[in-house]
Design goal:
By secondary structure, the protein is α+β, with helices and mostly antiparallel strands. It is built from two helices and four strands, in the order ββββαα. Helix 1 packs across helix 2.
Length: about 80
Amino acid sequence: MAVCKLTGKKPNTANHVSHAHNLTKRKQYPNIQKKRIWVPEEGRWVRLALSTRAIRSLNRMGLKAYCKKHGIPLKSIF
């Protein structure tokens, strides 16, 4: 299952609506990408499954600042 490690984004359940208004269940998947991030505190690379929104935030803020702002323990991500 595709879930973002930082934001917690996961697939959404929705209906596909035909022209005759027949409803069929479908999933809307978040844009999850595998990203390698350098963690200077650990001195190593970490590979995470992240949403593109989280990747943009990490590029701007950095992993440690992002985790501090959102109250996520750094050790729980690895």
